[in-house]
Amino acid sequence: MTQHKGLGLLFTVLLSATALFFHYRPYLTDPDNTFFNLYGDGYKNYFTVYYHIKHDATYTHFEGMNYPYGEHIMYTDCQPILANTLKFISQNIVDISEHTIAIMNIAIVLSFLFCAVLLYLILTKLNVAPWFATLAALGIMLMSPQHFRPIAHYALSYGFVVPLIIYLLLRFEEKPSYLISGIIGVVIGIYGLIHMYYLAIAGMLIGWYFLFTFLKHKSWKEVIRLSMHYGIQVILPFMLIQIWMMSTDTVTDRPPTPFGFLDYRARWEGIVTAIQMPYWAWIDKNVVDIRNMTFESEIYIGLVGVVGFIAFFIPLLRKKVLPQTEELAPRFLRLFFPAILLMLVVSLGLPFVLPGLDFLIDYLGPFRQFRGQGRFAWAFYYGWGIVLWYLLYQKAQVWTGTRRAILIGGALLILGMESYFMSTASFIKPWKDEAHYNRQEFESGPGYWFKNINLLDYQAVLPMPYFHVGSENFIVDAPGNAVRLATLPAWLYGFGNMGVQMSRTSFAQTIRRVPLDYLPYRPFEVLKDLPNNKPFLVVLDKGQYFSTTQGTSYLLRFSEMLYEDSLVQLRKLPLDAFDQAINAWRQDIKGGYEGTLQKGFQRDGFLLPDSTYQFYYENFDKLKSPKSYQGGGAFAGQRKFWGKGRRQIPFLTFQTPAANTECSVWVYLGDDQRPRMNFKGYEIDVAGREKLIIHNSCKFDLQVLDNNGWGLVVFPINASRAGATIRMDLEYKDMNIKDVYVDEFLVRQIGRPEDNIFWRRGNDVVFNNFWFPKMY
To answer: How far is 592 from 103, CA to CA, in rounded Å?
Structure first.
C-alpha cells in the first residue's frame, strides 16, 4: 500500500469512527444497558443470544421459549457463531456473559466502520484516488439501508458483510486461486451461521458473476474451473451448515415454504426515492403520493445514484463506458455490473410479480425459504455505489476546469447532504430498563417480583396474553410489553417459557400450543408433554391483557394472585385449572341454552332470541367429502379444478340475513399451509357490480382449534343492507396443497347482547357454531 493510500485509509477510519460515534453515541457510552429495541423482533434478538450464552446447557439447543420442547438455535435468531463463541469464552476462559448486550451493540458499530474501510479498499483497488475513495466510501456507508435493521433484525445489521464479499470477489478476479476461494468459503460459512440470508446473498451474487465470466469465455474448461471454485466458495459452506443442522435438529416437520414470498420485496420507489430527503418529502406532499414502504422495500441509492444510473445504464450495457482493456478495474466491472443488476431484478420479485406468473413460485424449491427478497438489493446498493463512484472519478479525469468542479463538487456535496439526512432518519431511539434487566437493581428495588415466590415451585411461565409467532401458519401476536415481561424470568434466572417467537416452528408442536390463546374448547394436548405436575407461573401484561377480550379469561378464574404492580400480575395456575376452565365454559353455555329455552323463540330446530332474529346456515351434509367437522359432508375444493395461475376458487353465494352480521365457519387446518387460507367476499349490487367487503385470514381470525385439526374462523360481514347478495371465494395464496375443506357455515345477525343462536344435535348443544358434546 502506498503512502497516499495508507493516509487515505487512516482518514477513512477517523472520519467513519467520528460519524459513527455521534450516530450511535448512546450505544457506545453505556453499551451494557442500552437496547436498540425492547419490543418485537428487536427485543427477541437480544433475548435469544443472551439466554443461550447465559443459561442453555448445550451449544445447539435453545430452551428460553417453546417449553417444554425448546428449539434449535438456528431458528431463534440467536446468531449461533457469535453466541456460541461468547458462550465458550464465558464457560472456559473468562465470564463475559453479562456484557453480551455491550458486545452486540459495539459489534454493529464496528461493522459499519469495517464497511467504510472495505469500500475504500475496493475503490482504491480500482485505481480511484484515495481522497475520492475516502469520501465516497464514507457516504455509501452512512446511507446504507442496514442502519435501519437493528430495530428488528439485529443479525442483518452487519454492514460490512456484503462489501467484504465484493472485496474478496475482486481479489479473486485479480488473481484466481483456491486460497481465495477457501477464504470466501470460510467467510460465507461464518456469516451463514449469523444469518442464512448472508449465504443466500453471497451465493447468488457470486453465481451471477461466474455466469457472466462463463459467457465471456464460453468453454467447458471454464465451466469446470468456475464450478470448482463455486463449490468451495458457496456449496461447501452451505452443505456443512446443512449437515450440522440435520445432525443436531430433532424436528422433522418444519414448514418448507414460508408464507408471504412476495410481501417483502424491494419496490422501485424505495430505490429511487426516500422521503427522508426534504425534496422527496416535498414531492410526496405536493406533487405525487409516494407509496409508504417498510425498510424491507427501501434501498435508496441516492440522488447521484439515480441520475448516474440513468446516465450510465445504456453505455454500461453496450460496454462503451468502461475501457476495453484487460486491466483489473474494467475487467471486473464489466462482469460485476450485470451481476448486481440481476440482484436488483431478483429483489423486485421479478418475474413472479408479473400478472399470471405467481404460480412459478411453486417451482422455486428451497429458494422459497428466502422470502425477504428486498435484502438481495443490498448487493445492488453497495455494488452500484462502487461502480458509480468509479465512473464519476474516471469522468473527472477526462473533464477539466469548471465542468470537472461541478461534476465532482456537486456529486460529493449531494452525497454529503443525503448522508446527513439519512443518518438522522436512521437514528434508532435507545431503550433502557435497568430496573428489570440489571439483576442487582431488580432484586434490590421495590419492584422485585420474586420476594415471596420460589421459581423452583413452578413448571414454567405461561404468558398472558399468550404469543406464538414464527410457525408460518398460525399467528398469535402479543404486542406491547407482553413478550419482554413474560421472558424476564428466563432472562434473569433461566426459567422456561411457554411462549414462542422464533422461526419455522414445528407444525405438530404449534397445533398443540396455539389453543393456549383461545377459548377452552377441548382438552389441551400440550399438557400431556409436560415433564411434571407443577403449576404454571402466569405473567400477565396488564396493559395488553385487559384492553381486549381474552380467550384465557376462564383460566384466570382458577388462578391465584401472587404479585401485582403497575405492569404485571403474577399468578399461580395449577394444571387442573385447564379442565376446570373447559367445564366452566360448558356450564355457561348450558345455562345460556336453558335460559333461552325459557324466553326465546324456536324456528326449524334453532333456538333464537326472538321471532325477528335472522341467520343463514349451510351444513354441506349433501356434499361428499373425505373430511368433515360435523355430519356426513363438507365443501371440498380440489386443486386440480382450480386452474393454473389461479389463487382463489368459488365457494358460496348467499344473502345476508342483516346488514351487520358475523360469519363463523369451520375449516380443516390440520396440515402445514392450511391455516394460510383466506375468505374473500364480494357484495353484488343490483347492476351486477361487485365490491370487496371481506378479506379475512384464517391464521388471524381463529377462535378455537379442535383436537381433530378443525378450527372455527370468525369474522364480521358488514353489508350495505339486509338481503345483500354476497359471493364468497376461498383464497389460497402461499399454499401448495391438493385440497381445502370447509364445513358448518353460519352467518348470524349481531348487534345486541342477546343475539345468539343455539341448536341441539342429539345430546350435543351448539352455540354460535361452537359445538359442545354430551351436554345432556
So the answer is: 58
pLDDT score for 645: 52
Q: What is the largest CA-CA distance in the chain?
A: 98
Are 745 and 667 contacting, i.e. CB atoms less than 8 angstroms apart?
no
CA 79 to centroid of chain Cα atoms: 16
Chain centroid, CA 443 distance in Å: 34
Tally Cβ neighbours within 10 Å of residue 386.
28
Distance (Å, whole) CA 146 – CA 105: 14
Question: What are the grid coordinates assigned to 523, written together?
Answer: 382438552
* Alpha carbon distances (Å) from 513 to 251, 494, 506, 616: 16, 21, 11, 32
HSE-CB at 669 with a 13 A cutoff on CA atoms is: 32
Residue 376: pLDDT over 80: yes
Q: Which helix (H) or strand (E) holds 134?
A: helix 130-142
Contact between residue 138 and residue 160 where contact means Cβ atoms under 8 Å apart = no
- Reported as a single tens digit per residue, the pLDDT across 709-747 is 999 999 999 999 999 999 999 998 778 888 899 999 999
State the burial class of residue 325 (Cβ atoms within 10 Å of its Cβ: 0-12, 13-18, 19+): exposed
Q: How far apart (Å, rounded) are the C-alpha atoms in residues 69 and 721?
A: 50
Q: φ and ψ at 614, to 5 degrees?
A: -120, 150
Nearest to 746, CA basis, from 734, 737, 761, 756: 756
Which grid cell is 1? 500500500
What is the signed CA dihedral for 319, 325, 327, 333, rounded to 10 degrees?
A: 10
Phi, psi for residue 296 in degrees, rounded to 5: -65, -25
One-letter amino acid identity for 195?
H
Distance CA 659, CA 91 (A): 65
Give the contacts of 512 (CB within 8 A, at least 6 positions apart). 525, 526, 529
- The alpha helices in 273-376, defined as continuous H runs, are 278-286, 303-317, 328-347
Find, among 749, 775, 771, the residue nearest to 612 by Cα.
Answer: 749
The neighbouring-strand residues paired with 500 are: 468
What DSSP line would sit under 546-581, residue for residue?
A: TTS--TTHHHHTT-EEEEE-SSEEEEEE-THHHHHH
Q: Do 662 and 669 meet the contact criterion of CB atoms below 8 Å apart?
A: no
The model's pLDDT over 478-533, given as tens digits with 9 standing for 90+, comes to 878 899 999 999 999 999 999 999 999 999 999 999 999 999 999 999 999 999 99
Q: Give yes or no for residue 681 having a pLDDT over 60.
A: yes
Comparing CA positions, the residue from 679, 741, 690 lying closest to residue 719 is 690
Q: Which triple of cell numbers denotes residue 730?
A: 376461498
The secondary structure of 350-413 as a DSSP string is TTTTSTT-GGGGGG-GGGGG---GGGGHHHHHHHHHHHHHHHHHHHHHH--HHHHHHHHHHHHH
What is the residue whose three cell numbers read 448512546? 26
pLDDT of residue 337: 96
**Residues paired with 560 in a beta bridge:** 572
Place of cell 462482469: 335
177 has a pLDDT exceeding 70 = yes
Please, which residues have CB within 8 angstroms of residue 386's CB and are 6 or more apart in sequence? 119, 122, 123, 126, 140, 166, 336
Distance CA 516, CA 315 (A): 61
Of residues 579 and 398, more confidently modeled = 579
Q: How far apart are CA 185 and CA 179, in angstroms?
A: 10
574 compared with 220, residue with greater pLDDT: 574
Please choose, from the candidates 246, 266, 6, the residue with its C-alpha nearest in 3D space to the C-alpha of residue 124.
6
Buried b (16+ CB within 10 A) or exposed e, 346-371: bbbbeebeeeeebeebeeeeeebbbb
Nearest to 340, CA basis, from 169, 132, 216 = 169
Q: Beta strands 725-731 and 461-464: pairing type?
A: unpaired
pLDDT given at position 669: 96
- Render the burial of 274-291: b for 16+ CB within 10 Å, e for the rest: bbbbeebeeebeeeeebe
What pLDDT is recorded for position 143? 96
Distance CA 167, CA 121 (A): 8
Q: How far apart are the C-alpha atoms of 167 and 137, rounded to whole Å?
A: 13
